[in-house]
Design goal:
Helix content is 60%, strand content 3%. The chain has helices at 46-52, 58-84, 88-105, 118-142, 162-188, 192-203, 212-219, 223-248, 252-263, and strands spanning 5-7, 15-18, 33-34.
Length: 268
Amino acid sequence: MPPWARASRAGAPPSVVLGPPPAALRAPRGALLDYTEGVSLFPITPQQAFDALHSQQEAVRRRAGEVIAGVYRAPLIAYARLRWSMSAEDAADLVHDFFVHAFEQGTFAAYVAQQARFRTFLRVCFNRFAVSDERKRTSQKRGGGEDAVSLDVVGPAADTSVEDLYEREWRRQFFTDVMERFEHHCRAKKKDEHFELFRRYYVDGEGEQMSYAAAGADLGIDEITVTNRLAYARGAFRKLALARLRELSVSAADFERDAADLLNVQPS
C-alpha cells in the first residue's frame, strides 16, 4: 500500500482512501478506490493510468485515479497552502475533493499533451475547482452552513510566484524519490563510496569548493578513482531518473519535455 494511502475501517471490505503524507495530516474525507473482487488492479504508471481512466470497469478507473492522485497530491497541497494561506488540513481536504470531483466529472479527458505539461493542466483545473468550491461554501455559510475557507491570495515572496513554487515542489519530490532509489542501487551493489561522492558533490554542494584530489584524500582513494566513480554515479543516477520520469509521465510529450528540462537529455 502506498505511503499516502490507508486501509479502510476494521471489518470493512479492503479499500484505499486518499490520506495524508506520513505523520503530517489527518486523513481527508471519502474513498476514491474500492478493490473489486475478480478485477485485476495491477500496479500501473501514470501514463497507463491516464489511459485507464476511460476503462469500462469502474474499479480500474478508480485504480487509475489512485495512481494519478498519488503522484500529484503533495505538490497540490503545498501549492494550496502557499497560494491561499491554508492550513495543512484544509489544503489536504481541498485537494482530495478536487480529485474526487475530477474523476467523477471526467475532467482530465480535456487534456491535450501537445499543449502543456499535465501538471500545468492539473494546476489550472485545480484553481478553477478551488474558486468554485469557495463560492459554494460561501453560499452555505450565508445560509447557516459550515465556515468557508477564504481563497485570498497570499504570496510567499515578492519575487517568487506560487506557480513557480508548485513546480519546485514537484521537482523536489521527483529528485528526492530518485535519490532514494539511487542510494538503494548503490548500497545493493556495494558502491557506497560512489554514492557518498555523488551526494557530496551534487547534493550537498561540496564539489564547488573541493577538488577531486581532496575528496579522494578524505576517502583514502586517488584522484583517478574519484573521477571514475563519479562518472559511474552520474550515469547510474541519470538512468534511474529517466526511468522514474518515464513512469511518472502521462504522455510521451511530457516525458520528452521533462527529460530535456530536468536532466538535459534529448530522448531518442
